[in-house]
Design brief:
Distance between the termini: 31 Å
Largest sheet: none
Number of domains: 1
Strand content: under 5%
Shape: elongated
Number of helices: 4
Radius of gyration: 23 Å
Structural class: mainly alpha
Number of strands: 0
Length: 101
């Protein structure tokens, strides 16, 4: 390959790989949200067991139910945030603006 063709070839390769490279930090940034979703899932399982237990007091069951509702609302918000972030990361306009100095 001639030296004058090397630079355009490298630029084309860099441009082709940049969307994949730009998406990886987005997924890494979503890791805490996924970890929180896992925590919520475990808390809901624990609270569900508390609701199923007949030995627990009605006040405890009511508190567990309210906590489960709050966790479900948080889970929905986290899923919406993750979806919105992925859609924004896939947008060519956002990707173009993010890579400009």
């Amino acid at each position: 390959m001639k030296p004058r063709h090397l630079l355009p070839t490298l630029m084309i390769l860099l441009a082709a790989s940049s969307p994949a490279l730009a998406f990886q930090p987005v997924e890494a940034g979503l890791t805490p949200l996924h970890e929180r979703l896992d925590e919520i899932r475990l808390q809901v399982l624990r609270l569900d067991q508390q609701l199923q237990a007949e030995a627990s007091e009605p006040v405890e069951r009511a508190q567990a139910y309210r906590t489960m509702q709050a966790l479900e609302l948080e889970r929905r918000r986290l899923l919406a945030d993750i979806g919105q972030t992925r859609r924004m990361a896939a947008s060519p306009l956002v990707m173009h603006l993010a890579t400009t100095p």
